[in-house]
């Protein structure tokens, strides 16, 4: 109650206030605006570099920053479109297929038109900020998987391969215990450092999700590698 009630009081005040908004703004939009503004003023050292192929119409770029960006933006794309008004950061729709961003004011400098997202795409667009629609999207995706069948089978096969590999690795690590070889242990930890960090991130994500105190992870949080990870129910719920 101490964690949720204040947020509901704030939401109720927003609904009663005559400010023209019928819902709270998503927290990720503030970070999206900050990153966009930073990309606008970042200098492009070599705009004719052939290894970068920004396409503002499809909103894709081959630069490393675009792939790592949580919002799928980079300085090459941002500087290839006309300056956007402040309302863009409140109304822009984020899509799950190319182009990843759509808005009437998102216009390339060369006068070409932005390709709209396909209407019959397997992944619906984020047409609004209401978190309730996430469950509806998941239901549509699950129904689509059941209709196509093959996608679900492929997922199960690949997941089983990962699970079996981890189980075999655990058994072989137990076998190494009798030799007490510190050189092997150090090498194993060094080579698997990135994997262990990911496991630690998962554990921290589950801890924050199950905690009744502190801030819960957000959809577009600081670690987008866990965006599609679903936490299992906590022990207190699993036993009921």
Write structural notes for this entry.
With 240 residues, the protein is mainly α. Among the domains are: 27-129, no CATH class; 181-211. 48% of the residues lie in helices and 2% in strands. It is built from ten helices and two strands; from the N terminus they run αααααββααααα. The protein has helices spanning 5-16, 28-41, 64-68, 75-78, 88-91, 132-148, 150-176, 182-191, 193-210, 235-238; strands at residues 93-94, 101-102. Strands 1-2 form a two-stranded antiparallel sheet. Strand 1 and strand 2 form a beta hairpin. The radius of gyration is 23 Å and the shape is extended. 8% of the residues are buried. Mean pLDDT is 77; it is low at 120-150.
Annotation keywords:
two-stranded antiparallel ribbon; mainly alpha; extended; 2 strands; 240 residues; single chain
Work out the radius of gyration: 23 Å
Question: Approximately what portion of the residues adopt beta-strand conformation?
Answer: under 5%
The arrangement of helices and strands along the chain is HHHHHEEHHHHH
Number of separate helices: 10
Structural class: mainly alpha
Q: What is the rounded distance between the termini?
A: 21 Å
- Strand order within the widest beta sheet: 1-2
Largest sheet: 2 strands, antiparallel
Report the helical percentage. Answer: 40-55%
Low-confidence stretches: 120-150
Mean pLDDT: 77
| β-strand number | 2
Shape: extended
């Amino acid at each position: 109650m101490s964690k949720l009630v204040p947020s509901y009081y704030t939401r109720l005040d927003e609904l009663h206030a005559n400010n023209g908004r019928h819902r709270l703004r998503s927290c990720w939009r503030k970070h999206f605006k900050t990153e966009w503004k930073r990309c606008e003023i970042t200098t492009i050292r070599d705009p004719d570099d052939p290894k970068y192929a920004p396409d503002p119409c499809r909103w894709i770029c081959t630069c490393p920053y675009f792939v790592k960006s949580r919002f799928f933006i980079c300085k090459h794309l941002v500087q290839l479109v006309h300056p956007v008004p402040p309302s863009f950061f409140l109304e822009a729709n984020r899509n799950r297929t190319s182009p990843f961003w759509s808005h009437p004011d998102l216009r390339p400098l060369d006068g070409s038109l932005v390709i709209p997202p396909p209407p019959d795409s397997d992944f619906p667009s984020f047409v609004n900020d209401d978190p309730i629609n996430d469950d509806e999207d998941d239901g549509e995706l699950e129904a689509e998987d059941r209709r196509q069948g093959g996608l679900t089978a492929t997922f199960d096969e690949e997941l089983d391969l990962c699970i079996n590999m981890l189980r075999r690795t655990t058994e072989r690590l137990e076998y190494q215990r009798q030799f007490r070889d510190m050189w092997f242990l150090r090498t194993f930890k060094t080579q698997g450092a990135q994997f262990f960090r990911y496991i630690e991130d998962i554990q921290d994500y589950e801890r924050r999700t199950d905690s009744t105190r502190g801030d819960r992870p957000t959809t577009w949080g600081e670690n987008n590698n866990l965006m599609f990870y679903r936490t299992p129910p906590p022990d207190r719920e699993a036993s009921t």
